[in-house]
Specification:
Belongs to the sulfotransferase 1 family. Helix 10 crosses helix 11. The chain starts with a helix and ends in a 12-residue tail after the last helix. It contains 13 helices and four strands. It is an alpha/beta fold and 266 residues long. The protein has a four-stranded parallel β-sheet with strand order 2-1-3-4, with helices on both faces. The protein is globular. It has a single domain, classed as P-loop containing nucleotide triphosphate hydrolases (Rossmann fold, 3-Layer(aba) Sandwich). Bound molecules: adenosine-3'-5'-diphosphate. Adenosine-3'-5'-diphosphate binds next to helix 2, helix 6 and helix 12. Adenosine-3'-5'-diphosphate (A3P) binds next to helix 2, helix 6 and helix 12.
């Protein structure tokens, strides 16, 4: 952890970097793949050259042997809270694509991830984990703070705020938004090609996107696959009525005054 911290605190952003920022389990890998397809002009072979976490390195994560040297223009991802973002991203006015997902689906996805990704402490029961999530006592801290602070970011950097639910509803429309934000244009066929390659089904079977390149001792996909369900509203099969009421009351307090509108189902 200390090494990771030292690494990202000395990280130097370049003006043509593109940062994908998310709270964990909000569609990071998905948008990373969409961005890679755009940057590689839809060339599937190029997008298969390395696992997702090497093609779009995680700012705060580095381990021996991990190749994170990508040529400019770089795609970089982060889960850091805005306050921890290295200042050079702001100084260089780096473009940021933020992806947010509704808190209930994030909590469910995160619980399953905690169980399979062994770097995390044992999450305990779902009920315990949900309390910790609501308290922000999980890796990368409070979801409520993350989505709000990044959302308030205007002025110093260029930010496109996307929602997982919108991507599920209409990926093509969201890809067009991204292209406009990047000031790029692609043919209709190319956009369709990217839409097709970044479906849940395609990404689940893509070894360069589905994290199966990570050893089982670190991520045990028999416990829960990284590409788990990929839907909106899975929380309904997990939350009890009491948990849902408790969550909603807490949510209303934490999100009071916030203009962001999350969709719990499509
Ligand atoms: P679930 O656990 O709900 O299935 P992240 O990449 O930020 O860690 O997010 C992982 C979540 O995004 C997982 O959610 C995963 O299944 C989902 N996901 C990944 N690729 C997806 C895709 N192409 N379509 C829909 N969901 C996707």
């Amino acid at each position: 952890l200390l090494i990771s911290f030292l690494w990202f605190s000395i990280f130097q952003a370049w003006p043509d970097d593109l940062l994908i920022s998310t709270y964990p389990k909000s569609g990071t890998t998905w948008v990373a793949e969409i961005m890679e397809m755009i940057y590689q002009d839809g060339n599937l072979e190029k997008c298969q050259r390395a696992p997702t976490y090497e093609r779009v390195p995680i700012l705060e994560l580095k381990w021996p042997g991990l190749s994170t040297e990508t040529p400019a223009p770089r795609l970089i991802r982060t889960h850091l809270q805005l306050a921890l973002l290295p200042q050079s991203f702001l100084d260089q006015k780096v473009k940021v694509i933020y992806v947010a997902r509704n808190a209930k689906d994030v909590a469910v996805s995160y619980y399953n991830f905690y169980k399979m990704a062994k770097g995390h402490p044992e999450p305990g029961t779902w009920d315990n984990f949900l309390e910790k999530f609501m308290d922000g006592q999980v890796s990368f801290g409070s979801w409520y703070q993350h989505v709000q602070k990044w959302g308030e970011l205007d002025g110093p950097i260029n930010l496109l705020y996307l929602f997982y639910e919108d991507l599920k509803e209409n990926r093509k429309r969201e890809i067009r938004k991204i292209l406009e934000f990047l000031g790029r244009s692609l043919s209709e066929e190319m956009v369709d090609h990217i839409v097709q390659h970044t479906s849940f089904k395609e990404m689940k079977k893509n070894p360069m996107a589905n994290y199966t390149t990570i050893p089982i001792e670190i991520m045990d996909q028999n416990i829960s696959p990284f590409m788990r369900k990929g839907i909106v509203g899975d929380w309904k099969s997990v939350f009890t009525v009491a948990q849902n009421e408790h969550f909603d009351a807490h949510y209303a307090k934490k999100m009071a005054g916030c203009k962001l509108k999350f969709r719990w189902q499509l």
